[in-house]
Amino acid sequence: MKVLAIDVGGTHVKVLATGQTETREFASGPAMTPELMVTGVKKLTADWEHDVVSIGYPGPVLRNRPIAEPHNLASGWIGFSFDKAFERPVKLINDAAMQALGSYKGGKMLFLGLGTGLGSAMIVDRVIEPMELGHLPYRKSTYEDYVGLRGLEKYGKKKWRKFVEDAVARLIAALEPDDVVLGGGNVKKLKELPKGSRAGDNANALLGGFRLWEQAGDHASRKADSRKTRKRKEHENGNTNSNSHRTPGRSAAHKA
Questions:
Q1: In the chain, what are the domain boundaries?
Q2: How far apart are the C-alpha atoms of 65 and 72, rounded to whole Å?
């Protein structure tokens, strides 16, 4: 199965497919609708083969659908049929969650994406939980307003770095993760990583897109194994019950 992974960001849309070695991208921005995104992706990947699609979406997602319009793109994403537009099965997930999945090494991991906003996700024993920590109250506004792009532009690098360090320390204290990954394009603007964290890689978002379908395959395989085990037990129980109802005479006759 060949996967086309799409990372939809506030400034760029990045794509990579199974078997390809180099990422391709095009500009997004506040005027980009889902139709324009699909058109851009199709044009950019016309020479790539793929069977299924993964999309990292910059907003909350529920049951494979956006439940809020993105803050940094045009509207029209809620209710849009990505499966129909791409003519392929599509898995849609929050963009921070997709990058978190690509960064995951085990245990309880907190992912924070320092980009246009503040993306966040938690993974516990391979189970992904997208979060919206960036919208929680912080100082006079929200975390996102201080450690996102707006905070960087308003307060400058020096103060922004202190806000990032403080925010990470607060979230570690509250959530007690085993591992903290800082992703997003603005990680490179940090002189030092906050205590207890490691740097992620934006390429991990696309890796997470591939892993989405690997997880689906693993889940399907586990379900198939479970069905086989259940049927075997039912068969064994059926034979046991059948044997227990045989009369001694029939049993002796059968042996003879």
A1: 3-98, 106-200
A2: 18
Q: Which CATH class is domain 3-98?
A: alpha beta
Number of Cβ atoms within 10 Å of the Cβ of 65: 15
Location of structure tokens 């800082």:
182
How do beta strands 3-8 and 52-57 pair?
parallel
pLDDT tens digits along 6-38? 999 888 999 999 999 999 999 999 999 999 999
Threshold 0.85, pTM exceeds: no
The secondary element (H helix, E strand) that includes residue 68 is none
Radius of gyration of the chain (CA): 24
* Mean pLDDT (the chain, rounded): 87
Instruction: List, as one string, the DSSP characters of 185-225.
Output: GGGGG-SSPPTT-EE--THHHHHHHHHHHHHHHHHHHHHHH
The letter for the amino acid at 186 is N
Per-residue pLDDT of 218-246, as tens digits, reads: 443 344 444 444 555 555 666 545 454 44
CATH superfamily of 106-200: ATPase, nucleotide binding domain (3.30.420.40)
Structure tokens at 238: 């059926």
